[in-house]
Amino acid sequence: MAEKSFEIVRTGYDSSGVCLVKWAGLAVDDVGAPFKRPSRSDRSVHVKGTFGAGGAVVIEGSNELEPASYAALNDPSQNPLTFGSEKIEAVLENVLNIRPRVSAGDETTSVDVYMLLVGR
Q1: Do 50 and 111 touch, CB atoms closer than 8 A?
Q2: pLDDT tens digits, residue range 84-116?
Q3: In what order do the strands lie in the sheet containing 18-26?
Q4: N vs C: which end of the chain shows fewer Cβ within 10 Å?
């Protein structure tokens, strides 16, 4: 399992309280480094790329300081945020740590996860 770092993508809306976070090239068993910005509670996640055979990405969160125990987060309809194909979903819970985790796939799996946060 490799922990992949994220980058903050400049959007031109940064001064308006918008933040775009990207985890790139996640493969099977990779986890994204946790992003911490609980003051921006309006969040959506866009997962895209090659999922491979049975590929799945789970969006997880924790309110613990590191090292933390993580649990799957949900969309506003209280469905787990698990992606098997390209999709955009809002995130229901506001947590201290949020990260993507590739829970299944094959050697072709390579996905990017974008998280948009709005707020001050």
Answers
A1: yes
A2: 999 999 999 999 999 999 999 999 999 999 999
A3: 7-9, 18-26, 110-118, 42-50, 87-90
A4: C
